[in-house]
Amino acid sequence: MTEELFREDASLTECEARVVALAEGGVILDRTVFYPLGGGQAGDTGTLVGPGGRVLAVIDTRKSKQSPGAVVHVVAADADLAAFAPGTAVIARLDIARRHAHMRFHTTTHLLCALVPHPVDGCSITRDYARLDFHMTEPLDKEALTAGIARLVAEAHPVRHRWISEDELDANPGLVRSMSVQPPRGLGRIRVLEIEGVDLQPCGGTHVANTREIGVVVVTKIEKKSAMTRRVVLGFAAP
What we know:
Blueprint: E1 3-4, E2 14-23, E3 26-29, E4 31-32, E5 46-49, E6 55-58, E7 60-63, E8 71-74, E9 89-94, H1 96-115, E10 120-125, E11 130-135, H2 142-154, E12 159-165, H3 166-171, E13 189-195, E14 199-202, E15 217-226, E16 229-236
Parallel strand pairs: 1-4
Antiparallel strand pairs: 2-3, 2-9, 3-8, 5-6, 5-9, 7-8, 10-11, 11-16, 12-13, 13-14, 15-16
């Protein structure tokens, strides 16, 4: 298994690691700061720096399909992996700007969940935009939601995670807002994300430490995707 350092500290931007295997189109490390695609959030990109300063570009990060618990740092098909044999010591270094965008957007989606008290049946978080699909029929107001987000950002609510048992989650089923992505089970514990006084729900993604770090995020579009779905799209305000 790959030790996922970002689960405890999303502010880490690099770490020392060792290559475990070359498989599935990339490099598997014993530990990483790279978040793999999942829960609606895009995978991280960045570099692996090997012996002699040799740099290997990571173009995506995915969960291994062949080795449960392993994280694959995906590289280009023609990448030269000669310097990255199993056992090699490397430095895993994130594309910080991309990660920070993910953190800002992901935290904002939690604010949206507090502003729109309906189940979520779709989510996507990228560097350039984020969206949530709410299971609901009533209309939403773009300006009102943007103002609500700005208020919660300005209030500077602390953001933190903690772990609860699967039994605790079963005793509080209302914590799960997503209809499409259920918390992973089988490990005995569930990671929950708390925005103090605002939102509490299971989440394995990366987030800022305080809502004020989100900055200016606005609702760019609201769409009626079906009779029971309203899509809210988020973007960064133009400079």
